[in-house]
Design a protein that fits this description.
Layout lengths: L1 H23 L5 E5 L2 E2 L5 E10 L5 E9 L5 E3 L14 E8 L3 E14 L2 E11 L3 E7 L7 E3 L9 E4 L1 E5 L23
Parallel strand pairs: 1-11, 2-12
Antiparallel strand pairs: 1-3, 3-8, 4-7, 4-9, 4-10, 5-8, 6-7, 9-12
Amino acid sequence: MKKYLLHFLGSFSACLLLAISATNLKAQTISSTIGNAVGCVGDTVTVPVSVNMSAGTSVSAISMAIGFDSTKLECLGGAQNLISSLQIGTVSNCTTVPGFGKQIRFVWTDLNPITINSQIFEIKFKVLSSGTHGLSWDLSPGQCEYANQFGQVIANSTWSSGTVTCNSIPINVSLGSVNGCSGDTLSIP
């Protein structure tokens, strides 16, 4: 009887451990997306940045670095119009990073983990030249990542880049002037 009881307890313990492990192995996935914008040279465009997390996923720290060509786009500040849960504990700016060029950096941390499934902020640019200009994540180690409340990096993340497109250059129109009297037909150059 003692032998069967030990065997039962051992089997029960193994099943319990397997159930707990399976719960902890549930895939946590996070997808981050830089949106797209269209404008003309001289326009200010707004580009959304969104995050979507799978069920059961939450974070206590976010680090993002978004690169762009500063000869084609001018950064007009860091992250703007943040969602309410990111209002405190955030640092964001436009900076030059040696070896990478101009980047928008965004960092947030809080001891209380949150789940996000929405646009988290916007970035604004002044369009400096026509064409399609890439906005890309800096995926070098430690630049773009999420961490849980224990400081462990959540590895299963995807990062989708965006663009700002300027298909045309604005046209300046000026009218000449002519003298005339009431009832005259005039041709204005």
